[in-house]
């Protein structure tokens, strides 16, 4: 092994902080430039439906990837092994669903809020339920992102995580109020470059410094911990945390549910000019997703190998597996040359801000369209709508920052890693939310009378599944014999597909019982009926 590895640095240096300031100034310039074009909510939420497809595709990846995957995926391989990355096997199938079923369907509807569809298909109750589930989904998501990014910044700077959460949350809220979706998309493009750059630097540094490559890393990790490279392929036991089969199911359903029901993703398609542009945007996202997933897996493997070979480079009492999610920011801070660590630190900071930007903008779009348009007293002309959108953005941003502080407290008092926290904080809402759309698209007989009870039942199932131990411990206060069941942990890889499937099947059953076979207005918004419509032009009315 060549003698090119230097010992760990003490921490960030002046050059690192110069990189942070430069990055922040670049994002601020994008926000100021974007704000000059704003005259309406159509521009604030959709960029006047004229955003370039390449930028939208990059924005999709940067937004949906976020710090959670960027830190959580390498942390998962470091702590538990390679099973999580087998989800890539599902990508060709989920790509077909999104490209052939979802994108042409939604682009023909010309929506601002995806939940407008639910009122057209069912009724306003369904629209309100969908918007509420989305609100909880993305509040939990944004809060965990802010906590995760702030935790990484704490590892790199030593500052208090509570103060970092407040700083990141409020800073992002203020520039979201100004920039709108145009600023979010262009800053996501910058973040896209930084995400790839950080992973290339990680893999490249380990390869250059050690004179080895992925095959050698795999063999070394296998020798140290065979379980890391030998995942369980299948099990009928729903308490097994992760198998290859359930990871593939989880990945497939996460993709089709997110791109088929989540305003954060759909709003970016709505911001493009046409169906062909939206499809190209998704292809950019999908190809980039494959590349970044491979890089994330390789980075996790490289880190595990590096610190197996150099355990003395870790802090006192740390091992690679125990460091888990903290290992990547520790590597950035203590191993990379001065300057690079600072740029990646800025990437974490801006990723959290961009996530909040995207999420808050989407929540505000839903609230303005689904509630503000319903109650006309809130409106005062075109600029009145824009002021309402900015006010909602401010409120949601402050609320998210508060929830992130609570998440920080919960995370500090548990042994759960980022991947374990995802279903408990937000993914438990994704399956029920998506099922409402899938019922509307593919069960034309169903009305709100069958769809809403089915979705609400699946929501209860999803919450119980993701919070089983907490619920059982609460019930054990009344019935102590139940306490022995609190040690059961249902698989996190069932948390999306299982409730979604149950809701769809239950709605199909209820539809045959409570819904009449005859025609109803909602049938015009089933998938087949909508696809018979001509593709709208860029200047057609909403």
What does this structure look like?
With 542 residues, the protein is an all-alpha fold. It has a domain at 14-31 and 53-221 and 241-422: Sodium/glucose cotransporter (Up-down Bundle), CATH 1.20.1730. Helix content is 72%, strand content 0%. It has helices at residues 14-35, 41-46, 53-80, 91-109, 116-121, 124-157, 161-210, 214-224, 244-261, 263-270, 275-309, 320-323, 327-334, 340-372, 381-412, 418-442, 448-466, 468-476, 497-514, 527-531. Helix 3 (53-80) packs antiparallel against helix 10, helix 7 crosses helix 11 and helix 14 packs across helix 15 (381-412). Mean pLDDT is 81; it is low at 377-383.
Topology:
Elements: H1 14-35, H2 41-46, H3 53-80, H4 91-109, H5 116-121, H6 124-157, H7 161-210, H8 214-224, H9 244-261, H10 263-270, H11 275-309, H12 320-323, H13 327-334, H14 340-372, H15 381-412, H16 418-442, H17 448-466, H18 468-476, H19 497-514, H20 527-531
């Amino acid at each position: 092994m060549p003698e090119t590895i230097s010992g760990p640095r003490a921490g960030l240096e002046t050059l690192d902080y110069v990189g942070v300031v430069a990055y922040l100034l670049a994002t601020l310039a994008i926000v100021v430039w974007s704000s000059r074009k704003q005259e309406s909510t159509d521009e604030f939420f959709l960029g006047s439906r004229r955003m370039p497809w390449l930028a939208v595709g990059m924005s999709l990846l940067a937004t949906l990837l976020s710090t959670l995957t960027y830190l959580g995926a390498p942390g998962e391989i470091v702590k538990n092994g390679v099973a999580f990355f087998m989800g890539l096997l599902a990508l060709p199938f989920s790509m077909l669903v999104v490209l052939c079923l979802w994108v042409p369907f939604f682009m023909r509807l010309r929506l601002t809020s995806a939940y407008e569809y639910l009122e057209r298909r069912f009724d306003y109750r369904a629209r309100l339920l969908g918007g509420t589930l989305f609100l909880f989904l993305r509040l939990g998501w944004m809060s965990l992102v802010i906590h995760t990014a702030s935790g990484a910044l704490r590892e790199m700077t030593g500052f208090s995580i509570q103060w970092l959460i407040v700083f990141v949350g409020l800073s992002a809220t203020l520039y979201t109020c100004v920039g709108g979706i145009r600023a979010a998309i262009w800053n996501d493009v910058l973040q896209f470059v930084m995400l790839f750059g950080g992973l290339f630097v990680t893999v490249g540094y380990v390869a250059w410094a050690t004179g080895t490559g992925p095959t050698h890393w795999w063999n070394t990790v296998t020798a140290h911990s065979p379980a890391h490279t030998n995942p369980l392929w299948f099990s009928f036991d729903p308490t097994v945390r992760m198998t290859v089969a359930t990871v593939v199911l989880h990945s497939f359903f996460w993709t089709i549910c997110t791109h088929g029901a989540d305003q954060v993703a759909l709003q970016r398609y709505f911001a493009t000019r046409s169906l062909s542009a939206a499809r190209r945007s998704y292809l950019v996202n999908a190809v980039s997703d494959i590349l970044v997933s491979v890089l994330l897996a390789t980075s996790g493997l490289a880190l595990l190998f590096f610190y197996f070979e150099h355990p003395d480079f870790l802090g006192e009492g740390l091992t690679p597996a125990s460091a888990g999610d903290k290992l990547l920011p520790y590597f950035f801070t203590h191993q990379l040359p001065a300057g690079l660590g600072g740029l990646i630190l800025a990437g974490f900071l801006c990723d959290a801000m961009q996530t909040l930007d995207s999420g808050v903008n989407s929540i505000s779009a839903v609230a303005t369209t689904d509630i503000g348009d319903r109650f006309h007293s809130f409106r005062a002309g075109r600029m009145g709508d824009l002021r309402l959108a900015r006010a909602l953005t401010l409120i949601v941003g402050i609320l998210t920052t508060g929830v992130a502080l609570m998440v920080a407290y919960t995370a500090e008092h548990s042994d759960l890693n980022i991947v374990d926290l995802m279903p408990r904080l937000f993914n438990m809402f994704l399956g029920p939310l998506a099922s409402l759309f899938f019922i509307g698209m593919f069960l034309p007989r169903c009305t709100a009378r069958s769809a809403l009870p089915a979705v609400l039942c699946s929501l209860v199932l999803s919450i119980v599944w993701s919070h089983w131990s907490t619920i059982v411990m609460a019930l054990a206060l009344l019935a102590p014999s139940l306490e022995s069941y609190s040690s059961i942990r249902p698989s996190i890889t069932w948390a999306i597909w299982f409730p979604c499937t149950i809701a769809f099947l239950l709605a199909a059953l209820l539809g045959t019982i409570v819904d009449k076979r005859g025609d109803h207005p909602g049938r015009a918004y089933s998938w087949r009926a909508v696809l018979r419509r001509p593709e709208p032009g860029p200047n057609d009315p909403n």
